[in-house]
Every structure is written in structure tokens, then in C-alpha cells.
Amino acid sequence: MDDDLPAKLAAFSGKGYVIAPAGYGKTHLIAMAVKASLQRQLILTHTYAGVNAIKKKMQMLSVPASRYQIDTIASWTLRLCLYFPNTSKWNKEYPSGKEWAKLYEAGTALLAKPFVERFVRSSYSGVYVDEYQDCSSQQHTLVAAIGKHLSCRLLGDPMQAIFDFADKPVDWERDIYPHYQLLGELKKPWRWHSAGAPELGGWLDEASKRLRAGERISIATPLPKGVNRVAIDLTDFTNPKRLNCFFSFLDNDDAVIAIHSGDQKSKNKTHKLAQALGGRFSSIEEVEGKDLFSFIKKLEAAKTVSERLCLVIEFAKKCCNAVDGIFSAATKRGEQARATKATKYPDILELANRYLADPSSPNLARLLAAIQSNPETSTYRRDLLNRFMKILRVHEENAALSLQESAQRYQRDFRHSGRPIRHNKLIGTTLLVKGLEYDRAIILEADSMSPKELYVALTRGAKTITIVTLRNTIPA
To answer: What is the Cα–Cα distance from 88 to 95, expressed in whole angstroms?
Structure first.
């Protein structure tokens, strides 16, 4: 990092941007720039995981808390509109879906009001917007409105722009380069130097330059230390050794992420692969929790407790292997069952009977916990199951709420706190792991990824990357 860049950002009073490739010290730069500032700064990003990462860096570098406020663009806009409801014409606390677009429009209009300008100017002297490539065009319009009142510094990397918005993503060629001043570009791959993998960092730096230029990357041997290539077809189900490359990662506590591309077909592949690996790797769910909310909707709509139990068993099968073998035939039909000498797991039978007699959230939680801890089962969608268990706890503690209302309350808190990942061998998509760092990354079907997705995937592993493909060059 240019030693003068933090001071340059702190003193800057116009509209500018910094090109910040993945792993090159962007969060460190923001923290040092805020530390060099004399007045309070607003720092905006897109996710609460991003908020927490910046806060952690601020604390690590002893930046006074009085110098900054960190928030997501969505939350800051929502709070601003709710603070001035009469002018913004906004009073909805929990927007969803297309309502977010209307919120950004309301926030942009609100920022044009002179009294709101005074409010913003008295609260902050400048704004930093992190991961700017992830902004939609409506968010960009909102940030431009903030930039009329405050010094505005954007940090991002167009090569990481992989989100597919209903509203178009920000166009750097049209929206940024002509109107914002280039303040600097981060040049050193700090993530890999800090992890003791400078050769990997150097290779990734060269690889990213090729991808930006529209070229392919050669992965023919010899490859530098930290870069491995596995020539195998993961879709060849006749090959009993097709998954062997994953098992070597189970020998230590390093955080490992296996990455598919972000299309819907690949999202389904993450769950199938985790299932095939018997839960040794666990798949990550989308933040929105579509599968989770779909199940809850069906559960609440069920007309009989028998139907509810059948739905619960089907949900358990989506999360764990070998569920069928631990239930009696009667239980799987949604019926009360009687234990016999042949009953393999009388505790599971008893908990299912108890749920049929009293379909409460505590009884459902006990049943699911018993399924998860059974010696025959293995959980491969821990994220999905754990989130539902927490919703059941919210429901138990708030009897006046419906299960769906409990889910909405949990989802609100989940967005703030993020997912607690205790299992550190994971499978996800580029969209779900973007912005996150792991010790080791496995790039799945690398030849099928777009250049931007490939760039995001390659830059997730700090110590090693393993590229799974039959080709000698990527992307295809």
C-alpha cells in the first residue's frame, strides 16, 4: 500500500475512488484513512459480515470509535427514512423484495431536502463506500446524493462485480471513471504475504492481470507453491475416486471452502456434493433462506399434525443423510407408532409420538436434535438445519408469534449478526463467499466459470488453492 494513501483519502474533499483488488488491504486502508481523519466518517458497505470485518479492523488498529459509523447501505437508508417519515413518506420497518428499490428512491429524494443536508453534514464530514462494485444503479444514485453533501471515497474492484441485480449494477465506465477522481490503486497482495504464501500471491496477481485483459490462465505444470491442479471430472459418477481430492483437507483445522459458480444449477450442486461427502463438508445457504421459508410456509399450512410430521421428516432428509433408516414405517406415514423389540431407535419413535400429540416448537426441536445426533445420520446442510433450530427457539420464547413471524424476526437479527460457521469445511457459490477469506480454497469446475467468478473464487484461499478441471487453461 502507498504509505501516503491513507492521509490522501483523509484530506480529500471531492469525489474519488480507489481500485482495490481482493486481498490487497482495502479494509486496512479504510481503517488507516479514518484514523488519520480529524472528524467523524460514515462507512457504508453491503453486508453485515462486511460491517463486522471493518469494525474488527478498526479495533485492531485502535481507531477511536468516535471517528466513524459503519453500516450497510440498506440499513443506513432505512434508518434515515424512518427518522423523517413525514417527508420520506416511508414507515415500513422491514422492507422486502421490490420494496428496497422504493426505499432507495425515497432516500435519494430525502437527501435533496435542505434540512436533511444540514443533518447529514452535522453528523459526518465524509463517506467511504466499500465494495462499490456490488452497488446497484439505484444504490449508486443514492451514494451520489450523499456525495453532494460529504467528501465521497469509493473503494472497489470491477473484476469482483458478479451480483445479478434486478436493478442494473453500477457501470464503472459510465458512472465512476468520468465523474470521480482516481485516488490510488492497491498493488500488493497482502493477504497472501501475511499468510506466508508470497508465491501464491504473486501467481494470483499475474492471473488477475490476465483475466482483466480477457486472457486465459495456464494451469499446466509446473505451478508455483500453493497452487494445485486436480484433473478429474466431478460429474463422472462411475469413478469411485472422483471425490478423493477432498479428503486430504480433513486432516487439520484449516478453514476450507469448495466453490462452485453462482448460477442456480451450481447452487444445487453444492448441496449434492456435501451430501455425497457425507457431511464432512457442509453446504452454505443463501442469506435470504428461500428453502427455509418455503418449508416453514408449508409447515404452517399443513391441515393435520400427521401432515406436519411428514413434512418435518422430508425437511430432515434435505439436511441429513440416512434419515429414512432411523424411523419406523408408521412414523414415516405420520402415525403414532408402538415400540417393539425390533425398533432400532425407540428414543426417535418416542419423540415423534410426542410431536404428534403436541406439535409444539420445543417438541419439534427435540426431534430434530435427536435426528442430527443419531449415529447413523450425517448432517450436510448444517446451515439450513441450524437456522431452523434457532427459529424454533425464537418461537418458543415468543408464544404470541406465529412460526413465520418468528422466522422473520430471526432473519432480521441474522442479517445483523451473520451466520456463525462452526464447521470449517464448507461448500458454497461465488456469490456466497465473495468478500470472505479462508485458509484453503478448492475451485470446482473452474473451466465453466466466467472470468469475474473465477477471479473471485481464486482469491478466497490465503494459503493454497486447488483447481479442479480437466483443462490446461481456464476459463474455457
So the answer is: 14
- Would you say 377 and 371 are in contact if contact means Cβ atoms under 8 Å apart? yes
Burial grade of 49 (CB within 10 A; 0-12, 13-18, 19 or more): middle
Find how far residue 356's CA is from the centre of its chain: 36
To the nearest 10°, report the CA torsion of 235, 236, 241, 244: -10
Task: Using alpha carbons, select from 70, 131, 134, 144 the residue that is nearest to residue 104.
Answer: 144
**Spatial separation of the C-alpha atoms in residues 157 and 51, rounded to whole Å:** 18
> Cα torsion for 443, 449, 450, 454, to the nearest 10°?
0
Q: For residue 427, which of 297, 299, 246, 298 has the smallest C-alpha distance?
A: 246
What's the rounded mean pLDDT across residues 277-283? 96
Closest CA to 457 of 430, 439, 424, 438: 430
Between CA 350 and CA 325 the distance in angstroms is: 16
Amino acid 113 reads K
Residues in contact with 10: Cβ distance below 8 Å, sequence separation at least 6, in sequence order: 33, 34, 36, 37, 38
Q: Collect all residues with Cβ–Cβ distance below 8 Å to 422 and sequence separation of at least 6.
A: none
Phi, psi of 464 (to 5 degrees): -145, 155
Q: Which residues contact 464 (CB under 8 A, 6 or more apart)?
A: 197, 200, 226, 227, 228, 439, 440, 441
User: What letter represents residue 94's amino acid?
Assistant: Y
Nearest partner of 443 among 280, 245, 305, judged by Cα: 245
Q: Mind listing the pLDDT tens digit for each residue in 369-415?
A: 999 999 999 999 999 999 999 999 999 999 899 999 999 999 888 87
Residues 387 and 200: their CA atoms lie apart, in Å, by 36
Q: Which amino acid is at 39?
A: Q
Q: Tell whether the model's pLDDT for residue 283 goes beyond 80.
A: yes
Q: State the DSSP code for 32.
A: H
Within 10 angstroms of residue 244's Cβ, the number of other Cβ atoms is 11
Q: Which helix (H) or strand (E) segment is 264 a member of? A: helix 264-276
The 10s digit of each residue's pLDDT in 157-206 is 999 887 665 568 899 999 999 999 999 999 999 999 999 999 999 999 99
Q: What letter does residue 437 receive in the DSSP assignment?
A: -
Domains parsed from the chain with CATH numbers:
4-188 (3.40.50.300), 192-286+423-474 (3.40.50.300), 290-417 (no CATH)
Residue with cell 473484476: 159
DSSP count for the chain of H helices, then E strands = 21, 16
Rounded CA-CA distance 450/11 in Å is 38
- 233, 416 contact by CB (below 8 A): no
Q: Summarize pLDDT for 62-95 with one digit per residue, the tens.
A: 999 999 999 999 999 999 999 999 999 999 988 8
Cell numbers that stand for 265 in this block = 444449477
Rounded Cα–Cα distance for residues 168 and 288 (Å):
20
